[in-house]
Amino acid sequence: MTRILIAEDEAAIAVALEDDLRAEGYDVVIVADGGAVVEQARTGRFNLILLDVMLPGKDGFDVCRELRRGGHRMPIIMLTARTHEAEKVLGLETGADDYVTKPYSPRELRARIRAALRRTAGEQPDVYRFGDCEMDLTRCELRRDGRVVELAPLELKLLSAFVRKRGRVLTRRQLLDDAWGPDVFVSDRAVDNQIANLRRKIEPDGREPRHLIGVRGVGYRFDG
Q: Is beta strand 98-101 parallel, antiparallel or unpaired with respect to 76-80?
């Protein structure tokens, strides 16, 4: 059975979430503070975490950051009443997979949970196909219409990050960490320049991208 950890300190919201998700067939565990989230994630096996931002002890940002640094890869969906763009970006940068603003539709939240679980189900394939391209992660090779396309090392790292996390919005900071490394300091513009180079190599029309989609004020998403 799919196990979901709910981190929510408002009892009424927590109970409503528990009832709704149990009705969908999920096994649910509820905690009410940040420290308990980290402890449960370490001792229990969960397929997904619903993480409220405003938790006592440790807030959701700190919890998410700590879990990712500890190697926990389960999807994390943040729940918050905050609507500022900067806070959404921060949530994604700390490692969250999605960000849902309160008040939310239970139907939408269920759909987002299913989507997050689908993205992590099964083993990662070695070859990703999109449009007329295929990315072979084992050979570190991009082919278009069957012909190998030359990729610079940074382009290869960026495209690998995108195809592994297809459908997720990745911030420029995340992309910088994936391609350049966490201890390298370059401008966000460097990411934009590499994206422009990739678009010329994988898009039917770089001016109207189908695969590398810009998300205003946040970063980029790979659709394939």
A: parallel
